[in-house]
Fold these 4 entries.
Entry 1:
Amino acid sequence: ELARDYLEHGGFAVVVARDGPAALEAVARSRPDLVVLDLGLPGLDGLDVTREIRRSSSLPIVMLTARDDELDKVLGLELGADDYLTKPFSPRELVARVRAVLRRVDSGSSAGGATPDRVVAGDLTLDLPRMRAELAGRQIELTPTEFQLLATLAGRPGRIFTRSQLLDAVHGVAFESYERAIDTHVKNLRRKLEPDPRRPRYLLTVYGVGYRFADERT
């Protein structure tokens, strides 16, 4: 109720679901712009709800968890959550996180080396206004966070980004989200983009530093 009150005060229309099945019904019925999802839902927990949503949608998801457990966080991110908060959390921070994720949906990226509307890096094309990704003519379904991360890296092929820089790029501000969340998002991107995720061609690790998108000389 407190989270709902703060979100409504922040200008959002909020639909509340009391359990997992009701959450899936609400998503199908209300077609929201974003889901704030508690991992501890009765009936069907938040991870299962995320799996179901991700079968057919890249709808932004901000996940809430009662345990400061890295395994829960990583699993939630691997399933496609865009962000997470650990209870107890500040309702104001929740509103800020929701706004940050929605800004990623609305604004896309204007990284260097890109036009205002498009990033082209080899056989990868990103349509920024529509948040549409194509690799060799094949459409790739990405979450908003995955899209923003990929646009940041592909917008400057060859440039090395630290995890901190990437975290700041996808959130817009330096939240205290732990930087290893970036590793999980990169892992998800590799699974969707790379012919062999174990031997990536596009998203390259710079050990001890961060990541870069391969340039034509790589």
Entry 2:
Amino acid sequence: MVLLNFNAMLLSMKRISVLLLCTLACSVVWSQTITNRLETTFKIFEADPQLRGAVASLYVTNAKTGEIVFSKNSTMGLAPASTQKIITSASAYELLGKQFKYKTSFGYSGALIGNELKGVLLIKPSGDPTFGSWRWQTTNEIKVVQRVLSSIEKAGIKKYNGVAVDVSEWAGEAIPDGWMWQDIGNYYGAGAAGLNWRENQYDLALQSGNSIGGAVSIAATKPKLYGVEITTHVKSAAKGTGDNAYIYFVPGANAIQVRGTIPVEEAKFVISGAMPSPQKQFAATLEDSLKARGIVTIPVETGTLAEATNFTLLHTETSPPLDSVIYWFNKKSINLYGEALVKTIAHQKTGVGSTDVGVKRIKALWKSKGVENWELNMVDGSGLSPLNRVTTHAQVQILQHAKAQPWFDGFYHSLPEYNGMKLKSGTINGVKGFCGYHTSKDGKSYTLSFIVNNYNGSASALVQKMYKVLDVLK
């Protein structure tokens, strides 16, 4: 009986060993099959006429083990466009924390005597990119203004010397280095200021006539713009030609020009622009709202607004948590949010919001986790600048790191879906990219980054060809 049990045990152990060997062999075969298929498909992709003169980089790893599944040009620095947002997002989670919130303070300087303020209403901004945004009920511009007005009324103020915004902790120009002139006047080219308002965006309604080549006039702006002169050089084009109008302005100036074309017979053709000065826009909006409630300004001598030193707090506006900000940042690819986050990362460390300092902190963070600085040649947080150079290897390393973090669920949820995969896309002139995660039908998980620079032809055609390569992972 003992001998029979021993023989049965040996037989069982042999069966388990065989099963383990089969499982390992299947895993190796699966990995080799995927790698071989990617090699074949990628060669066909690179040989496509759209990639004459182009560079394509693809890096794929096993999401669970980190094992390399495919690598081509993965250490070559390429312009990443908005795929760079995954780097900024992960950096913000790491350096600020998923529950981080912006706080914008409202108060006054000077003495309040009776109902007359011998000083200014003073705003101390935090660089909050959600201030006045329509994406959350709590940040809605109407509700924000109402809360600020209520705090001023509660204090009993009926007269004041003006509104000032303290931007002493927010250094430099709102526009990062390397942004193109054609971009910075339009909504997607809104830079991050100390005080941001309505995502620094306004809508411009244009009216065209019946004749092709005819002049186009301005019908309205929403909201009303303060202290800005808009000139249109837009012409009418054939029906169906779509939006080919661009807004231009010089940072610091109050003159806006609109050029390009819109279709004929449009009564209110809306394009969206970037506010030249969101700080001035909000201050003027607040003053108009105060006036409507009988709270008026008393003119003061030039320079008085800058001389205030004391501060009495009246009200604090608090943003949604970072987790929620990252959701919209990636889901809708809002460039403003990326630039604000980079400056906030700098401000948290040094007390001054600076793009250059923020980028240095981001690079130092990932250097400490094994990503070399030469793989992250960043100049902004959104990827809008064509000067950025990032490797697909670095992006996948960061994506792999994110999977093991307590904030991963929010990060993953923020990624859009393309081609049935959770991917952040990126598009600027001559650049297309995708990076993120995918789980195949048989349960295999991948982390990937795929970037193409300097392609020719249409972006839509290229995207379909990129999808064919990525379909191998399905």
Entry 3:
Amino acid sequence: MGKVLVLATRNQGKIEELRKMLAHYDIQVNGLDQYPDCPEVVEDGDTFIANAKKKAETISNHLRLPALADDSGLEVDALEGRPGVFSARFAGPGATDQDNIRKLLESLIDVPLGERNAQFRCVLALAVPGRPTWTCEGSCDGHIILKPEGAGGFGYDPVFYLPLMEKTMAQLSQEEKNAISHRGKAVRIFTGHIHSLLNE
């Protein structure tokens, strides 16, 4: 196995998605579950890029290894871009996916279906010891439906409807999701540069 790349997250859904997307490369992909002594990173940035860079740089500096961080979230036009960077804790600290979805749907209760446009955004940041941090971004457009549909994915996937697919993100296979998702698009940009980014 080649170079080690640490995914700077404890979110098992993200770890599994990213592992699958990077499976064809000669890279050992480790999640933070394999490094229990790593510090918790407080995501206090006001943008996805600020949070992604902070996570990647903190973990890379601690482990002295390349670290890839993702900060992503849902932006709803009718909510002026919220929940945005607060997507994972929209319903408060320790909120579950179901809690966040419930709060989102309650926030949109008076918004007609045709005015529920939203986008998932993902920023990836790669921190390598001794180098400037590299970033890229991907996005995916859809709209928020009235109730959850589908059992796949995680986060807001069950209420994020993709008109071109006529399905929610949670109704897609992993392969379909990776092909069109915000994270899939960002990872494809990353893998296009992966050898130059990770080689010393």
Entry 4:
Amino acid sequence: MMQTLAAAPLVLIRGGGDLATGIAHRLRRAGLAVLVTELPQPLTVRRAVAFAEAVYEGEIEVEGITARRAPDLQAALICINVGEVAVLVDDVGLSLPRLQPPIVVDARMAKQPLDTRLTDAPLVIGIGPGFVAGENCHAVVETNRGHNLGRVYWQGCAETDTGQPEAVQGFTGQRVLRAPSDGLFIGHARIGDKIKAGEALASVAGQPIITTFDGVLRGILHDGIPVTAGMKVGDLDPRGRPDYCFTISDKARAVGGGVLEAILAGVDKRRPQPGNSTTNSQGVSA
């Protein structure tokens, strides 16, 4: 028997990448209705665990939760009502005034202010750098790994973007595969493949992208996507565990937990609560 969600609070999540999918998955498991909005051509690398992939494939299942592309709002609401996550192409937020959702989560990970506003919903939650609680959202959830990962800030902002990926077994920037030039991206390997150092696993405009260490391809762009020089096009994991490519990361789960906390705290808790004097790395009260 299909579960209906007609009475569940609707959460509109802007962005359907792997971090946003960890959020959507946790909220859906908690019984909330979820709508994801995405670009017409998402640039997600970790496609095996990203609801954004539904834009290309029509649907995707991530750890038991199905996300389905909806051609319009009516179809999206039908998907939601049967317990699925609806994915709607809407890169400019046209669905916001029509749906008037009680909760909006901006998980686009732009790391800079975009078009999200306090007035978008009764509760607006920003994910990571680029958001300031009380200015362009009500709450911010920390995305930087470390002691504060997943923490909810009701004042101030998340930690500043370091510009460097986290270290995994001593590898940092090498893990991120980047386009060597402008042009069309062509992949030569699949997510989950074991890759050897020196292997060309993709190319852009005829220029190969060569790996510098052994690992498992955790993510890679779709073929035929136009890219610019320096753009992230892949993710190589030195741990050598193919199963990690197809499951939600610990980071995404932690951030999802922070979003769920912010939602449960409710609209009346858009300010610091008694006893909550923890500060983020910038000394801002959390």
